[in-house]
Structure formats: structure tokens, C-alpha cells
Amino acid sequence: MADILISEVGPRDGLQSIDRIMPTEAKKRWIAAEAAAGVREIEVGSFVPPSLLPQMADSAEIVAFACTIPGLNVVALVPNAKGAARAIEAGAHAISIPFSMSETHSLKNVRKSHAQMLEEIAVIAGLAKAARVHFAVGLSTAFGCTMEGPVEEDQVVRLAVASAEAGAQEFSLSDTTGYANPAQVKRLVRAVKAGVGAERMTTLHLHNTRGLGLANALAGLEEGITTLDASLGGLGGCPFAPGASGNIVTEDLVFMLEAMGVNTGIDLKALLDVRAIVAEALPGEPLYGFTPDAGLPLGFEGIAA
Amino acid sequence: MADILISEVGPRDGLQSIDRIMPTEAKKRWIAAEAAAGVREIEVGSFVPPSLLPQMADSAEIVAFACTIPGLNVVALVPNAKGAARAIEAGAHAISIPFSMSETHSLKNVRKSHAQMLEEIAVIAGLAKAARVHFAVGLSTAFGCTMEGPVEEDQVVRLAVASAEAGAQEFSLSDTTGYANPAQVKRLVRAVKAGVGAERMTTLHLHNTRGLGLANALAGLEEGITTLDASLGGLGGCPFAPGASGNIVTEDLVFMLEAMGVNTGIDLKALLDVRAIVAEALPGEPLYGFTPDAGLPLGFEGIAA
């Protein structure tokens, strides 16, 4: 049993940030290999119109494939109720909607005000409940916005509470813009927990834009966060937030946690081998990661030992 | 008054890792500009034989120059008593000797056993005390060694205590090889504090080899560390530890701390401008740093505000 759930978001967040389209069969190899390395949750695709994100056009097929892997929690991102219906129909175990805490960013990104987003969340919650699909809300730009600057923490809590009242079952705090710092992570996790309950405020989605990704992850762990999103090779970020880039690297995160004695359930050596699948499918695409470059310390033993 | 002392090690640790020799006048411009940005301690050179490290041949002139800057604590690295005598003669305010916790690394690096190093430390302590110069010991490879693998924590504590008994006034735990993780940082800081007293166990010298540098810095802060070494642009590392590279980046560290509300006394915008001096003096040399690449968040206000 893992102490911490690593939720791999590369096949969704990573691939939607890249212009090239990864072939469906390569996506399947990637997802299967990561699951085999011990990753227990993967955000495998998003149900956005293919005209907007052709990289995600095969998401229904990918969800169906991923659901055949024993023990894997298959998550799909949905931008709205229509996408949610498609994700549920495809068989996703869980769906997640990004809800931008900056209204400016929300209007720019999905052309919805906060009030309109809360209405959409209520509709999706109804669909998810009827289908017995888990429904999470990602509180994006929670740590600051490249358009608005700082985002009020009270506003984040208020919108999280409103989302919970609308039926959201779980929350992620998302550092979409790479503005977060460890003190802020601790404050905001505590505040949202107080608002919606600790059992619902479980997840951090962190970027490494200013190099603080793992420090922020550590801060979250210390506040009882149980799920951390990360992306193999650091692929992805947010294409709609100018200047923002870089999810935290799954390999570096797993190294940090396993070295600390925090069990991720992931075989780090096997995880490092997954990079070859992605590199082969996306030749020339940069894959990041300090631990992959430096190698494992002499005498390091993850769960593979 | 700063909450945390940032000790810039680039002019020593950074420049000795680069084959090219930075002109003396450029070193002076760098040091002066960093001090003007609010950096209150700089390790400006090392008193190693110029035949071994020609990059450091002008250290006496650099120390003398740095001592003319009001309020700057001028530190010099010394490999042995002979170097200590030269550093003291040059006017350094403080001297520091690296003491490798891995005996294999010590024998390879300075051809001295642990017992021989403790004798050297006693001699240096005598010189420093007579000259009223502050004397610190850097407990290098404290978190693991690329030759030996894991280093016993009891051994680190024992050697720190023996160094204190030999007259060392202050200690730094140094992650020479980039093996450290936050849990280990906390354990070892606590253990060495218990051995030599909290007032002597003040400093961490961290590398970012596996991307954990700032997470380790955060762990140290939480254990009451008051001084953090860092290098502008991440220059440097340890040329004697194969595969090891990369001091933590001063700019990223200052961003993290100031964003957290921890006062460094440093004007981050002015610090970012110092990079141009280094870049001009070392054309083509890579300068690292996430914050310099990404820029400061919208609405971010350091002490400059």
C-alpha cells in the first residue's frame, strides 16, 4: 500500500501542450508501461472538442484501453457537461474539471464566469452521481494568475465550498502559473481543508516554472496532501497561461519520496525506462528531469530492491 | 535585518569548476554588484596552490578587495593549514575547510585520512583563533558519496563533534554529491545540532543534482538552519565527485524565500541583473535558474518594493 498516490498527467496535460499528435498505439504503450511500473492513477485524456485539441481526439479509445489495466484508476479531464457525458460514456473511473480561480483566466480559457462554472459543475455532478463516477474539481490558478496577479485565498476557499455544495467530491489545488511557494501551499491547503473537509482536499497539481515544484510538494505532504500530480519527463503545463510551463517531473518526485522513505508503490528504475517509449513516439521533444540525467545515487534502493 | 543569511559561493565554488579563468576585474565587479544587491556573505576565493587551481590564483587580491566593501562578510575556502595561513594573511573575515565525511573521498580529494584531517583542523583552529578569524568546517559528502554510497549519520556526528573539540566554531552540512533528501536533511541537522550545539550547526550547502535542492533547503529552514549557500546561475559543484554537479541557484533560492515572506535582505531584481556581469565575463558558459528564465510573477514584490 502506497503512502502517497502519484497521479500521472502526462498523457493528458503533457500531450495537449505539444503540437504533434502522439499515435494512439504509443499512448497505450506509455500508459501500460507506467501502470506496470506501479503508477496507480493516470489522467489519460480529455474530452475537449477535437477541433480544439486534435491531440486528444482518441481519448474515448484511450480510456477504454486504460480501463482494461487491472488496478489502474483512469481519470479524464472534462471542460464542461458535454465533455463529462462523453467521458462517462467512455468508461472513465473519474472525471476532473479545471475551475480557474481567476475569473479573467476563466473567461479567457473557457469563456465562462465563476457563476457559469458553478452551474456547469452542478450539472456535471448530477451526471457523475447518476453514473457512479468520481468527480473532482481542479482549482486552477489558485496560487496566482498571469493575467490578474495574486488571487485572494478567501476567494479560492469560497469557490471550493461552492463547488462542494454543487456536488464536487474532491479537490486539487493547481499552480497553473508556477507562482506557488511553500508557505502559500501550506496556508491554502489548510484553508481549503477547513472549508470543504480534509477528506476532500487531497491533491496538488504543481508546476516547476520557477524551480519550486518539489519544495511545494514537500510543503503539501507536510499538510497531509495524499495525491500529487506529476508528468513523465515534465511534459506539459498550461497552454492558455502565457509564460507558464512545466509540470513537476514524475521521476524526480518519485525519487524524492522514495529517498525520504515515503512509499509511492512505484519502481523508479522501471519508471525511468518508460521515458524511452515517449522519446521514441515524440522524437526531438525535450524530456526533462534531474534524476534521469544524474542517475540514481550509489546504493539507492527504491521498492524495486 | 535578514531572517536568513544567503552565502554566495559562486566566485569560489562556481569559478573553480570552470576551466576558464575569470579576469580579476570581472570577479571584483561580480562581488561588488552582489553585495550592492544585498548579499551579506560571499565566499570569494580559495587558497589552493595555483598549480592545482589557476582559477583561484588571485584569491589574495580578491579577498583584499572584498574586505573594502562595507558590511560584507568575506569568506575564503582553505584546503589545509598552509592555505589557512595565506587566507588569514590576505585578511579574510572567515575561513572554511571542507572535511569529507567519506574517508574514501577524503583520501582521493586531499590525500588525508579522517585522523589527519582532524589534526589539520586543530592546527587551523589555532591559527584562526590567534588571528581572531572565524573558522568553519564544511562536512562534505555528508549525505552520501559517489565512491562509498551511503555515509553513516553517526559518523557525521562523531566527526563534527571531534572537529568542534579541535576548535571548529561553526558547521555546514554539504550535499557534495546531490544525494540528500528532505527527510535526511532534517534528521542530520537535528543529529549534528545535538552533537555540537544548535548555535554551531547553522549552514547547509546544497546541490540541485537531482532537482531536490530547494526542497532540501526548505527542510533545513524548518529545522532552524540560518545560512544557506547558493551560487549565482547555479555555477559550480564538486569537480572531484564524478557525476555530481550544480549548486542551488541563488536567484531561485531568493525567490522562494522572499515569496514565502522570509526576508533575505536581497533585492531580487538587482540580483538578477548581476547575471549579465558573469555572462559577459564567461561568454558561452551556461547560467542556470528557473526564476531568471520564467521571470518574476505578476505582482511579485521582493524587498525592492
UniProtKB/TrEMBL annotation, chains A, B:
**What are the residue boundaries of the Pyruvate carboxyltransferase domain, all occurrences included?**
4-272
Please indicate if the UniProt record lists Metal-binding as a keyword: yes
Pfam families listed in its UniProt record: HMGL-like
Name the Gene Ontology biological process terms. ketone body biosynthetic process; L-leucine catabolic process
Give the source's domain of life in one word. Bacteria
Keywords on this record? Lyase, Metal-binding
By its UniProt entry, which InterPro entries does this protein fall under? Aldolase_TIM, HMGL, PYR_CT
Any one GO MF term held by the record is: metal ion binding
Keyword Cell wall biogenesis/degradation set for record: no
Q: Which family does it belong to?
A: Belongs to the HMG-CoA lyase family.
Q: Which NCBIfam families match?
A: PRK05692.1
Name recorded for this polypeptide:
Hydroxymethylglutaryl-CoA lyase
